[in-house]
Structure formats: C-alpha cells, structure tokens
Specification:
Length: 260
C-alpha cells in the first residue's frame, strides 16, 4: 500500500477513515466506487509518487469508515467537503471511479473554487432511469457471521469478490466491508440525469471510459463535447478499470495531471 498512513476524522460523530499516501506535491483526492475502498488507489499513488499527494478515503459505510444514516447525494458531498477542510486544502484534484466519479463532478458543480480538476473514471452522467438496480443481488447476501468461514460459505458465488476484504468485529465475528442494504440504497440514490452538474464547472476534466464498461461510447463523446476543457480517453477494459487496467489508468492520469 506504498506505506500509506491511515487516519480518520469525525463527521457528526461518525468515523470517516482515509489513506494518505503522502508526497510533496499538490493533492489528488481519490474516491472509489461502490463495493470498494480507498486502498484500490494504491497503484495510482505509486505512479504519482514524488509529484502528487494522493489521499483516498473509504467513503461512508465502506472499508474502515462507519455506516451513515443516509447515502444521499448531499451526504456524500458533505463528506468530501469535510475531508478537504480536515486536510487544510483550499482546493484539490478530485478523481473518482463510478460512484466516486459522480461525487467528484457533483462537488465541482457546487464548489468549483475548491476543485483544480476533475477526473471521471467510468462514471456516467445519465444512469438508472430505466431498468433494475444493478446492486439488487446484494440484498440476498449476509452482512455478518460468527466466523470467517461461515461468512465466506454464506456468501456463495459472491465470496471470491469480497473474501480478502472481510472485517473482524469487536465481538470476534466477521462482516462484509459494507452493508448490502446501504449499498443498494446508495445506488438507488445516485441514479438520475446529471448533465447539469457535469456542465456546471469549468476546470480541466478527464473522462476515462472502459471499452467494455458501463458508459456508452456516445455518452462519453457527448460528455467531452458539451464541456469545454474535457479530454476523453478510452482504455481497453471493463467497468472496474482501477483493478483490471490499473497500470494503464495510472499512466493516463499521470499524463493528464502533468499538463495542468
């Protein structure tokens, strides 16, 4: 994890945990997507080491951060603001994958003076207007079990995706690094038409689309066309580019940041 330092801040009595990968340069705040955590940005931090400081929070209800009372758009954006304030940052580059990308450009729309640039990785501007919630499968998963073995067994086919990130409770039991219902609700609440937010800010922006991802090619092209100062890059890969194309993504981000 590149010797990242784990720290935390309290927001309304709730713990928000984050990894600070250090570095002497300006700061990139990297926001992960659903079912992930800040550690996913380790490869990116290594690529930017020496030039940029990467800070990667575990967003509310995920990883080492405590569950929140809600998973609204306002709640996520308030967490970003609180983290910037806690770090003493007047502005930063906001980078995000999926949910995190939407949080990044929506924060820039509301507080443009605090955002140096936006990097959107596989985060659409229109999503969920029709069709089922893609995280509905989570509602059939257990949240915790008395032992790690029992939890892994109960997760069934989903076990390989989460088994290496299970957490141990204070009482000795084991749990997922997120609550299934929280993530289902969060997905529901991020759905919508967000074109107004995407076009509201004017800082430099990078859109990174996976050729087999969830952002349609036409929508990605329109995102670049409708927002001045936006660069579009397509990488061979699926929606989970921070994992499945980590090296290529890190190099792409480094190149974009070098031009700021």
């Amino acid at each position: 994890m590149n010797d990242a330092k784990r720290d935390e801040l309290a927001i309304d009595g709730r713990r928000l945990s984050y990894l600070d990968f250090g570095g002497p340069g300006r700061t990139v705040v990297a926001l992960h997507g659903h079912l992930s955590e800040g550690a996913v940005w380790g490869r990116l931090a290594a690529e930017l080491a020496g030039q940029w400081r990467v800070v990667a929070p575990d967003q509310r209800g995920q990883g080492e951060s405590e569950r929140a009372g809600d998973y609204t758009r306002a709640g996520y954006l308030a967490d970003v603001e609180a983290l910037l304030d806690h770090l003493g940052l007047e502005k930063a580059v906001l980078l995000g994958h999926s949910l995190g990308g939407i949080n990044a450009y929506q924060f820039a729309a509301r507080q443009p003076e605090r955002v140096e640039a936006v990097i959107d990785v596989e985060a659409p501007v229109v999503l969920g207007l029709d069709g089922p919630n893609p995280l509905a499968f989570l509602l059939g998963l257990p949240y915790e079990a008395p032992s790690r073995e029992e939890l892994v067994a109960a997760l069934g086919p989903a076990a390989p995706y989460f088994a290496d990130r299970l957490r141990r409770n204070a009482d000795g039991g084991w749990r997922l690094p997120f609550h299934p219902k929280d993530m289902y609700d969060s997905e529901e609440l991020v759905h919508g038409d967000h074109w107004a937010d995407w076009t509201a800010s004017g800082c430099p922006a990078l859109v990174v689309r996976g050729t087999e991802g969830v952002v349609p090619a036409g929508q990605a092209a329109e995102m670049a066309a409708r927002r001045p100062g936006t660069v579009l890059v397509e990488l061979a890969g699926d929606h989970l580019l921070p994992v499945t194309a980590a090296d290529e993504l890190a190099r792409t981000v480094r190149g974009f940041l070098a031009a700021l």
